[in-house]
């Protein structure tokens, strides 16, 4: 396709996009739109308030974030350098299947299918015969995480078995600053002011301008609400109501407390440790470790949660505890009129699987895919809302599975969560897993088969049966094949290097992979 020179905006076209809020969501929106809408003369403006600030958490991601970096013209290494970031191979779940247990949710595959039957049915066949090994033995990501090593997928010499991906941990404020610089270099206009009023057209109901404390009226054609939990535009001005899911996901608070990164970087993954009334995160960065306790305020006081977190820090605390309140749920309409909510302004699911930032990314991808003209046809918003609702529901169900399958006995939150009724789609998935080890995938899933498998296996949810097509081979044949896979995984893992060496390679002159 030839590169066109921009002439002038066609009649009715969007000429300016206003992003309200400059946290992770606001700057991801501004940089992504500036990149994807380039060459059309569409002005992008961000209004953020340095007096209000950002939420200051949100430092673990999923691999899709690297597609975002690419879309805005950033290299993974540039991000790791600028944000004191580290690589992430998955999440280590400690204590969820009972005290002193742990299992790993990897960003990669387990084993290989054979003769049309998914790998895990062979693994289940051996488990049913008492010959099973840990599922993680067949995952390169898990093997590297166990060894505290890392390599880039391109450096993996082996074979299809060793397919894996990786995400990053980053310092949220440095990430926002990096995007702010990039956005401004690409022509995004920044206004540091407090939005005081949203002006709407009487006839269409569309937003026409945002008024600010210093007396500005910022006009635009399309408004992206990234004002965080306040949801000033979508929630307050446009009246999109809140769909509350706290009955299904009762954790409603977090206390965050960074500590010194003593001992160096040797865990290329996030750790999630179950506690009495919730769970604790550990996110390793180059210059510090992010920690937080996500908890249900009905089951523990703020003081006790803070004391628990302090007592479990692995290094000296670097700040005062940051207390955050939230609720699980989302705006009923994510896009109404000419206003689209992105980030916390649109909804929130607790950070158990690091999904908020990926929801920002998919919202922006969908917005560009459905990019409107000034009329903002309701059908476009309708499709955006349909897809986003499904995405939220799928992630919600995956998170609920973590709580439902827990094996912690005698603690009120955990006992309550095991007994709680399940959403219909999750109940269906579980019934198929329990009956025959069948993995079910619906439209707009953020997590694919290996992720679900890691949970089922990690929690010891053994199905009643496996695929009978796996029974056409003897146990000895299957043992031999799986041993071969195990060896191939180990051979691939031998090429990985200590994770801290990978970071050392990130010096500015390091070769680009
Ligand atoms: P904010 O950071 O709150 O930004 C809001 C912006 O709006 C700010 O710039 C603010 O100044 C501006 N603003 C607000 N009101 C006004 C006004 N009146 N005028 C002008 N500007 C205004 N996500 C992950 O993917 N991974 C994680 O590990 C993760 N951990 C989390 C842990 C916790 C405890 C919580 C609560 C969230 C976590 N998240 C995580 C979510 C993640 O933090 C957010 O999705 C992400 O930071 C985006 O936030 P935001 O930009 O929507 O909101």
UniProtKB/TrEMBL annotation:
Residues holding FAD: 22-25, 344, 357
Catalytic residues (UniProt): 88
Record flagged with keyword Oxidoreductase: yes
Annotated Pfam families: Trp_halogenase (PF04820)
Highest taxon listed in the record's lineage: Bacteria
Matching SUPFAM superfamilies: FAD/NAD(P)-binding domain
EC number of this enzyme: 1.14.19.9
MF terms (GO), sorted A to Z: monooxygenase activity; nucleotide binding
Keyword terms, alphabetized: FAD, Flavoprotein, Nucleotide-binding, Oxidoreductase
Residue numbers binding L-tryptophan: 353
Keyword Nucleotide-binding in record: yes
InterPro entries named in the record: FAD/NAD-bd_sf (IPR036188), Flavin-dep_Halogenase_NPB (IPR050816), Flavin_halogenase (IPR006905), Trp_halogen (IPR033856)
Annotated binding of 7-chloro-L-tryptophan, by residue: 88
PANTHER family found in the cross-reference section: FAD-BINDING PROTEIN, FLAVIN-DEPENDENT TRYPTOPHAN HALOGENASE
The protein, known as: Tryptophan halogenase
Organism: Novosphingobium sediminicola
Phylogenetic lineage: Bacteria, Pseudomonadati, Pseudomonadota, Alphaproteobacteria, Sphingomonadales
